[in-house]
Amino acid sequence: MYLSTDAPQTPSVSVSPSGEVVEGSSVTLSCSSDANPAANYTWFKEHEDSVGEPGQNYTITHITSELGGHYYCQAHNAIGRHNSTLLFINVTDKSSLTTVAVGTVAVLLVIVLLLIFLLIFLLIFFCMRRKRASRKACGQRGRPDTGEQALPDPVYDNVLPLTNRLAPAAQREPIEEQDDIHYASIHISHSENQEVPCSSAGFPVQSRQTEEVLYSLAQRPNAVPDSTQQPPSLHVCCDHAFHQLNLCVLFILNEMCLFFTVLQGNDDWTVTCTSSNVCSVRGSTVDISCTFKYPEKQHDLSTTVLETLWFTKEDRNQKPVDLLSDADYTGRVESSCGEISCIGSSCNRKCTLSITDLRQSDSAVYNFRFKTNQPGGEHTANPGVALSVTGTL
């Protein structure tokens, strides 16, 4: 029986998550190749020695900008070996993302303010135009029709500077004696028993004689105009326009709230410690606490916390060394976490590290990390808690 043997083919490589990688997150590199017998894999960074243990997958936890660059894997078996193409990992600083987000928000705010000012300007222009049109229409309705042929009979108009309301007959004579009487000759072009079309007082006058004196009210120049003379359609129009403007502003504000909510979602993954510096003495006990926050659900997947750990150092693969398994802290450390508290769409939990019988060598920066089932859902306290051990009890 003959079995064919083949050297590894050109390996295919991939990275998860794809695209830009945020500093502090977790990245997994994968490599695969067809070979007989099965190939073994080793990951390399360009111009550097091996960066990981032999394995098909290589995970970088808490990645930094220094760890970014070109990576490749080598597949090898007893027949031969073959290198993959270069895989570039672009690590983005969190501060740069914040700068981009702030710039985007500033541009959007400027656009929104310009739109609001434009709406207000259009509203004012529209209302002023309607107001001018209404005044013009009222002036045309108040003029007498001069297109018809007037009668030759003169009629005298007695113009008196009276108040807005007619005085009683008993009080009219003193007023007439005190004021000068001004006569104006007018011609009436209507037939008998026909109302005058537009008199200043709005009273119907019938022509019974060829000549008679017509009394009409003349409003004083300094009298306050009656606000009811403004056409109600102007008020309705302006009120409707203001209502539409309010709706537009509310819509814009609602969209902005949604935008800020989505933007705020970037801060749903946080680790906050009670203090960044702790000072204690040898032989005592110290408690260090950190609270981590995460979204209850993301990408249609409910978030589950898989692991929490405290560490002060990393191994040569940049993986944190759990204090509970560190020989220098055997029997002296204890880690405990409280109940999970969820408010709205975010959950938080507090974890505490207790170190007893403190030693001088315990002086270090203590970091807390939690890991979830979400892609890239692994976060570390930044900065950690600096513990300084001095003196004795």
UniProtKB/TrEMBL annotation:
Residue ranges occupied by any Ig-like domain in the UniProt entry: 11-92
Coiled-coil stretches noted in the UniProt entry, renumbered to this chain: none
Pfam families listed in its UniProt record: Ig_2 (PF13895), Ig_CD22 (PF24518)
The keyword Membrane is annotated on this UniProt entry: yes
Cross-referenced PROSITE patterns: IG_LIKE (PS50835)
UniProtKB keywords: Membrane, Receptor, Transmembrane, Transmembrane helix
Annotated Gene3D superfamilies: Immunoglobulins (2.60.40.10)
The UniProt record lists the keyword Transmembrane helix: yes
Residues spanning the membrane: 100-126
Domain of life: Eukaryota
Purpose: Most highly expressed siglec (sialic acid-binding immunoglobulin-like lectin) on B-cells that plays a role in various aspects of B-cell biology including differentiation, antigen presentation, and trafficking to bone marrow. Binds to alpha 2,6-linked sialic acid residues of surface molecules such as CD22 itself, CD45 and IgM in a cis configuration. Can also bind to ligands on other cells as an adhesion molecule in a trans configuration.
Subunit-structure text: Predominantly monomer of isoform CD22-beta. Also found as heterodimer of isoform CD22-beta and a shorter isoform. Interacts with PTPN6/SHP-1, LYN, SYK, PIK3R1/PIK3R2 and PLCG1 upon phosphorylation. Interacts with GRB2, INPP5D and SHC1 upon phosphorylation. May form a complex with INPP5D/SHIP, GRB2 and SHC1.
Name of the protein in its database record: B-cell receptor CD22
